[in-house]
Amino acid sequence: MMRGTPRTFVGPTVFTLDGAFCVHIADDVRARIGAMPGISGCELDIPARVLLVTAEAPVDRAEVLAVLRTTGCPVRG
Amino acid sequence: MSIGEGVSGMTEVLRGREREQAALADVVDRARSGHGSALLLQGQPGVGKSALLEHTIATTDGMVVLRTRGVESEAPLPFAALHRLLRPTLSHLDRIPTRQADALRAAFGESSDDVGDRHLVFLGTLNLLSAVAEGEPVLAVVDDAHWLDDASAAALQFAGRRLEGEPIAIIFAVRDNETGQFDPRDLTLLSVGGVDETAAVALIADQVDTPVAEGVRAELLEATGGNPLGLVELTRALSQAQLSGAEPLPERLPLTAGVERAFLDRYRRLPEAAQTLLLLAAADDSGRVVTLTRAAARIGVGPEALDAAEESGLLNVGDGGVLTLRHPLVRSAIYGAATSGRRRQAHRALADALAGTPDEDRRAWHLAASVDGPDEAVVAALDDAAERARRRGGHEAASSAWTRAAELTVDPQERAVRLFAAAGASVAAGQPADGDRLARTALVDAIDPLLRSDILLLQGQIEWNTGSLDDGYRIVCQAASTAAPHDPERARILAMLAAALASFGARSVDAPDPATITSPPGADAGPEQRVAGWLLQGFSAVLRDEWATAADAFRRAWDTPIGPDAPPMLHHNLAIATMHLGDDDRAIALHDLQLQRARDASAVNMIEHALTRGAVSRIATGAWADAASYAEEAVLLDRNLALDELITFPLAQLAVIAALRGDPQAPQRLQALEQALEQHPPHGTIAGLVIGLSHWAAARQAGVAPARALHHLEQIKLPAARWLSAIDRIETAVRADRRDLTEKSLEELRTFADGSGMAWAWAAVHHCEAILGGADAEEHFRQALDWHARSSRLPAKARTQLAFGEYLRRHRRRTDARVPLREALETFESLGATLWADRARQELRASGETARRGNDLVATELTPSEAQIAALVRQGLSNKDVAGRLFVSPRTVDFHLRNIYTKLGITSRTELVAMTSDPA
């Protein structure tokens, strides 16, 4: 689909991380994503380069990506 | 020109592109003379890739030109771009192997069959292009390859890497830094940069009637880096006052953003209705005016808006109501500038416009983009799209659709089911890392223990195939334990699988003993459960070197008939279990049956599996020509289908066969194996066998000192591999004067023989006892021969005969010696075992017999591939069928066949078929 195609989700969804980043970015990611409305869980597995975000109410993937980018977390798509 | 089949682009005269034009012409010319290749044309958006492609097409004569392009919003539509490329050639489908033709039809949705193995689509693509090229050379042009749907990208890259010797050129155009699923590695690259100053100045002058100030021109040149689209659009965006330098220029943006802003400025000056229409055109890629106007009508925009949009030059309606945007950047600019609410509205309108049309997949994805939360109807549409994609072999697309469906599903359990389906589809698409991520996600919601167990099994499979065998084993144990309280039968099969992994070397301190996960099946259990229970018992016993238990359990499992529909895991492991006992006849029967089924289903991975396992057993029985042919076919398959991580197994088999034969090529075979081992260190369940065979081959090289050979043989750890090399290990230990290791190995073998009762093992025990040279040596030789008579390991038998003959001759019983020596010589000659045959001949001479010359020893001059093709042709298969069977192109078959004729001194297929003996 086009970049930026609306993509709301509920439940767990995966973001794939590109490359390495430091510990306080990881803390920042957990704090800021965890504070987003509708988000009920945020698990970061750095060795597996996976961020697992769980939404209890519909959230647009683009909003999560936007918040991730503000943290400097290298994320794909 | 259409959005589908055309190459969008600029009609401007090409300026300053001589270098690129020459490079493209060269690729085309080489293809014309039979030296096909693929070229990657790479550059920024607007640099003129499409214009170069257009120019190449326009200046090419006498070639079939095929064209397609990637479309960003088509990512979820499997094989869409490939279908457009090949549509004009589909009338040639009857010229490629039937299975591949069927697979292509299914992939393109022209039949409702399952594609089956996706490699068939890839091979079909290559062979179809090749068939067309037999008439006229082919030029295939793929614009915007970074936006190809994944399945098309995979097929075209497969074909693009196999054009050597084909009169076919494929040219891919991709954006810098944006390759998407398109993996450009190892394609020849042609980078396109900006045009030079002279060309840039001329381009600027083409756009405006008024003179352009020197400073403005310099600024434009610098801002665009000579990018032609940038020069054109940024120049057009300037007012007369700005061009003359009277007014300042707008703030400078990065090139792409600058061009997008120029498009956006033009867009924003349009009436509201025309803007809406352009947004719809940006969100829909079908390029059909009828869809667009229908969607526009849904949100109150009349067809007259199309005229305004067209007048802006941002959109063009061509012949047949096909619609194109000025440039892909128009699409990204307009779509990017719309709010998410407006985008949803556009997608909803498009979905409604597609209702009741055959474009159900597009409709599903527009629906998915139109909702702002869970929606059952949308989920159902996505489920259907996923299922269609799976049938067509579009596993990436199926995975995307199931993932998206899960995101819109409220019920956690249903979500987990969809994510599990998505994970499976990713694995089928050859994307195990994605599959693993999706499986993890599925586990978050999966509550049902049986679903969890299934997901864990998938994760375990991914892990042992691509990561660590030990971790994979631990996860499979977890899958079995999870299922155990709820479905003991399922758990028993999973525990059996775990035990099988352990028997091939998997270890984990965190995993329970698989045998303790379930209780043994009850007396009233069905045959499948009894088989699972015995296999579990057998594999567990192998692990503890309890050979009597292992042999008894395996034999009970083998003797219990189960139907062909029993879980594949059972059939698979029944066959695998044979290797632990060295039960060659059964191994060959079971793996050949598996091979037959895999061939019937054209299941590539299963064919590879059955070939390599079948080859191991044939090495033991001395069916070396067959073993080499199996291994060679597996190598061909691995190379041709990029199953690189599997290739060390058949290469190790070929190295062993060459070493056992004393083939002059043995050192090269070993070297090829060692190189492959460096590139692809073996992992997973084949690692133990590959390493074992490699050391065996190294130990059996000509001229290796006994100590060094012994060092190799002692590094073979897996029992199944130690059994294959048992006689060599003990004989070498004797020659190296290592009494300790001799006795240890002999004891190990005796324990195995005693427990398993395998005839070959007892024969080997007596052979070794005999060569230790005690007073009862002769008695041991005779016993060894008695046991050999009950085993099918011919090479081992001949070695006993040779050793016995040597023993008798040394004891001055020359006449007695001749009998076993003659038999040994005959066997070695029939095996093509040069070195051993020479030894047998020398011994015969020393025993007073004038040994005849080894006329049978003239090794075949055919390479294994040639021998294999010759054999299939002699069975009456056509070139097309041979190609289909071996997964190569008919042209490759033809090439080998011509070499076969030359080597055999014949000129026709009829002569080949009529030859009385097998040329191999």
From TrEMBL, chain A:
It comes from the Bacteria. One of its GO terms (molecular function) is metal ion binding. InterPro entries: HMA_dom_sf (IPR036163). This is Copper chaperone CopZ. It comes from Nocardioides terrae. The lineage of its organism: Bacteria, Bacillati, Actinomycetota, Actinomycetes, Propionibacteriales.
TrEMBL record, chain B:
Residues 853-920 form the HTH luxR-type domain. Pfam families: AAA_16 (PF13191), GerE (PF00196). GO terms for cellular component: cytoplasm. Gene3D superfamilies: P-loop containing nucleotide triphosphate hydrolases, Tetratricopeptide repeat domain, Winged helix-like DNA-binding domain superfamily/Winged helix DNA-binding domain. GO terms for biological process: regulation of DNA-templated transcription. Keywords: ATP-binding, Nucleotide-binding. GO terms for molecular function: adenylate cyclase activity; ATP binding; DNA binding. PANTHER family: TESTICULAR SOLUBLE ADENYLYL CYCLASE, TRANSCRIPTIONAL ACTIVATOR DOMAIN. This is Regulatory protein, luxR family. It comes from Nocardioides terrae.
